[in-house]
């Protein structure tokens, strides 16, 4: 079994198609939608967690790619500009997943991209604007 969090970008012609449903029905994948939105260009954007057998996951991804869906790992979405971060700690209480936390030894704020669900709450909440969305 594997579990991966990925960002799917749908061209406008696919936005209203039951693509995620097909992942469940035809590829036995279980999904959890972490975020969904339609961009001003009418593209669909979905952040999902996909769980399933390795082979099913690979086939499901192939199916999406053949349809023209762009796929990228979630960890690429939110980044921190290390030069801007002042380690003020304001983001710790904002982050719902514990992806931003204090290292008690160094008193520095750590960003763990693996735990990030790209909710973007820290982007607005960071005073020096160190947290950034990369799409
Ligand atoms: S709120 Fe911004 S500046 Fe403060 S610790 Fe978090 S990322 Fe760094
Ligand atoms: S985007 Fe959300 S989950 Fe990711 S670090 Fe910021 S607050 Fe935490």
Tell me what the structure shows.
By secondary structure, the protein is of the alpha+beta class. The protein folds into two domains: 75 residues, Alpha-Beta Plaits (2-Layer Sandwich); 55 residues, Alpha-Beta Plaits, CATH 3.30.70. The protein is 21% helix and 33% strand. The protein contains three helices and eight strands, in the order βαββαββββαβ. Strands 2-3-1-4 form a four-stranded antiparallel sheet. The chain has a two-stranded antiparallel sheet with strand order 5-8. Strand 6 and strand 7 form a beta hairpin. The chain is elongated, with a radius of gyration of 17 Å. The model has no long low-confidence stretch (mean pLDDT 88). The site of one iron/sulfur cluster has 15 residues, from helix 3.
CATH domain fold name of the largest domain: Alpha-Beta Plaits
Number of domains: 2
For CATH, the homologous superfamily of the largest domain is named as ACT domain
Shape estimate: elongated
Reported CATH architecture of the largest domain: 2-Layer Sandwich
Strand residues, percent: 25-35%
Average residue-wise pLDDT: 88
Query: How far from one another are the termini?
Result: 28 Å
Q: Please provide the count of β strands.
A: 8
Q: What is the tally of helical segments?
A: 3
Runs in which pLDDT lies below 50 for 5 or more consecutive residues are none
Which structural class do the helices and strands define?
alpha+beta
Biggest sheet layout:
4 strands, antiparallel
Instruction: State the name of the first-level CATH class of the largest domain.
Output: Alpha Beta
Whole-angstrom Rg: 17 Å
- H/E topology pattern: EHEEHEEEEHE
Strand order of the largest sheet: 2-3-1-4
Helicity range of the residues?
A: 10-25%
Bound molecules: iron/sulfur cluster
């Amino acid at each position: 079994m594997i579990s991966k969090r990925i960002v799917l970008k749908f061209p406008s012609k696919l936005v209203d198609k039951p693509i995620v449903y097909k992942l469940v029905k035809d590829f036995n994948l279980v999904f959890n939608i972490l975020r969904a939105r339609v961009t001003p260009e009418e593209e669909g954007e979905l952040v999902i967690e996909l769980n399933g057998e390795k082979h099913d996951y690979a086939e499901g991804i192939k199916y999406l790619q053949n349809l023209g869906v762009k796929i990228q790992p979630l960890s690429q979405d939110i980044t921190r500009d290390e030069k801007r971060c002042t380690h003020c700690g304001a983001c710790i209480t904002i982050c719902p997943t514990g992806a931003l936390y204090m290292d008690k030894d160094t008193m520095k704020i750590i960003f763990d991209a693996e735990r990030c669900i790209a909710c973007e709450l820290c982007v607005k909440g960071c005073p020096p604007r160190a947290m950034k969305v990369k799409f």
